[in-house]
Amino acid sequence: MWGYAFIAPTGLGLAIFYLWPVLQTAYFSFTEWGAFGGHTWTGLDNYVRLAGDPEVGRAMLNTLAYTALGLVGIPLAIVFAALINRPGLRGVSAYRTAFFLPVVTMPVAVAMLWRWLYNGDYGLINQVLAVFGVDGPNWIADPATAMYALVVVGIWSSIGYNLIIFLAGMQAIPKELYEAASMDGAGRVTQFFKITLPMLSPTAFFISIVSVIGSLQLFDLVFVMTGSGQSARANPAYSRLQTVVQLFYERAFVTNDRGYAAAIVIALLVVIAVLTILQFRLQRRWVHYV
């Protein structure tokens, strides 16, 4: 009885602030909202409309592409963590702090900074390229570079979190394994691939789950770097940058089509659930638990 009493505040908070909004949104996805509030039951009309909406399909493909490309940050974090974890390296705390700073920086500030860096007219990146005689593009407005530019920002802002987690995982690996491998003649590279990576696989699995879920909910970076509504649609690369959550925002708060917006976000919830279940099934093939 006391156990239930102790978890009751947390359970009540989860029910009110997480479970109830999900159920309410699911209900709203079967309704149509009027211009002045109020809603009427429309059944599956929103989902039928969603299935035939090319803008939803495009936004979903953009979101999945961003998610897939963003996974490149996981091996990068492992490499940087291995470099920082070298015995005798000085300034480890400074390196960890430098990598983690983007994580604790407000996403809006990060987006504004990179928006300036990517600016085609006065951005720092193009100014550096001009020194070498290279005419850089307008990174966020060019359909050929917009998605990759966005992925770079996403990796830069999250690699610190992944690095700290991987660093903790590396420091938890028993030193005896490396000593035994050294006695057998294994070098550092062999030890990394035969000991470090297999022992880090549960950590990598956790990071991949968190990264995929976070990437599928991308909104703030795109919103700040491209805007919304007509100003965003004036961007030539808008069709390559629009995400599902951004489309949900526009339908819910710009055009006031809240029932359809609820259907969009419920569809995203289903995609997240399916991908998470798939990851849990696939982890049996590559995750090694001690």
UniProtKB/TrEMBL annotation:
Transmembrane region(s): 12-30, 64-85, 97-117, 146-168, 204-225, 259-278
Membrane topology summary: Multi-pass membrane protein
Keyword match Phosphoprotein: no
Predominant place of localization: membrane
CC annotations in GO: plasma membrane
Location within or outside the cell: Cell membrane
Domain ABC transmembrane type-1, first and last residues per copy: 59-279
Keyword Transmembrane helix included in the entry's annotation: yes
Coiled-coil segments: none
UniProt keywords, alphabetically: Cell membrane, Membrane, Transmembrane, Transmembrane helix, Transport
GO biological process, one term: transmembrane transport
Family: Belongs to the binding-protein-dependent transport system permease family.
Protein name (database record): Sugar ABC transporter permease
Organism: Nonomuraea zeae
